[in-house]
Amino acid sequence: MPSVLLLAVGLLISFGVAAVTGASSVSVSMAPAIGSNSIGVLRGAFFVGLVGFVGAVAQGAAVTRGVGTEVVSGPISFEMGTIALVVIGLYVGLGIYLEHSIPVAFSTFGSVAGVGLAADYSPNFDYWSLTLSSWVVSGVVAVALAYGMVQLIRRYVPNSPRADRITDRAVLFAGIVFSFIGGGSQVGLAVGPLVGTVQEFGFGILPLIVFGGVGIMVGAWTKSPVMLQAVGRQYASLGQRTSLAVLLTAIPMVQIIANVLGVPISYNHIIINSIAGCGFAGAGSGVDTRKYAGTLASWLVTLVGSTGTAYLLYEGIEFV
Question: Which residues lie across from 123 on neighbouring strands?
């Protein structure tokens, strides 16, 4: 069992990952409403933090358990969990430095898998197959579903000032719902690697989830306004209806995959594929195929790289 001081260090790293997740991944849920001027940036950040915290506490157990207990066959010790969190932070920080989207879900799964394999655990193939198939299938489904959403909105939502006002409110409401779902889907990425550690101290996972939820809330309140402003401009270029199609695609997919199945899922993975589907339907400015292919390649590199990095770090510590 680690000392209280070491546990505090691990929790501090976890809190940092949760804060970054709240500022980046969870805050994206409100970006369409910011882009359509349905809500101001500061109010949007406030709602993201508050609703994201509630969502984390209410729905965060599924992904937290999945990350903490299902990836490999054995328990994730404090040392393993801390190394996994360091690697997650490393890849997220690298993404921020390079100004490129690094999916936390992929780096989390890879990091936990890497330390588990280095500890001579075997992969939990049922969970691996569920996770990997969810990632692949969800990408295809997001493109198809968003394409269909655009067609439905074109057919049934007329072009009129009244319809525009209703669409505007729908975008805001969907953003709030997505923030709630996002808190539940993302908190486990930050605290999941420490499930085994807190259980060693005799605690359940709820206090750990609450702790991660506070991190998401703090990150959203302090750092998300810049992200919301930047991403909101991108959604403004898409238009209200396309933004609504993206949200209506992402909300049920993230809810089912993460908060029902307990699989770590990337917001960026779902949203970028949804935007691609809208582009294929002729909405927005179309699809930049080179950028899209580059994003897909970066996701693969993140998954493989985080697995290898965590494996080598744990092996190096064991050797020393």
Answer: 72
- 3-state SS assignment for residue 158: coil
What CA–CA distance (Å, rounded) separates 257 from 264? 8
Nearest CA among 264, 263, 313 for reference residue 119 = 313
What distances in angstroms separate CA 89 from CA 15, 32, 189, one per listed residue?
Answer: 11, 27, 11
pLDDT in tens, 139-153: 899 999 999 999 999
- Candidates 82, 16, 7; CA nearest to 215 is 16
**Whole-angstrom Cα distance, residue 92 to residue 103?**
8
**Opening angle at CA 295, ends 53 and 138, nearest 5:** 60
Q: Around Cβ 71, how many Cβ atoms within 10 Å?
A: 28
Residue (of 222, 188, 227) closest to 205 by Cα position: 188
Residue 248 to residue 244: CA distance in whole angstroms = 6
Number of C-beta neighbours around residue 122 at 10 A? 10
Host H or E run for residue 288: none
CB count within 10 Å of CB 6 equals 14
- What is the C-alpha separation between 261 and 61, in angstroms, rounded? 11
Residue 40, C-beta contacts closer than 8 angstroms, at least 6 positions apart: 34
Contact status, residue 77 vs residue 210, Cβ threshold 8 Å: no
Residue 135 per-residue DSSP state: H
Q: Which among 24-33, 145-154, 226-235, 281-290 has the top mean pLDDT?
A: 145-154
Which tokens sit at 64? 């937290």
Convert the pLDDT of each residue in 87-125 to its tens digit.
998 887 777 666 566 778 999 999 999 999 999 999 999
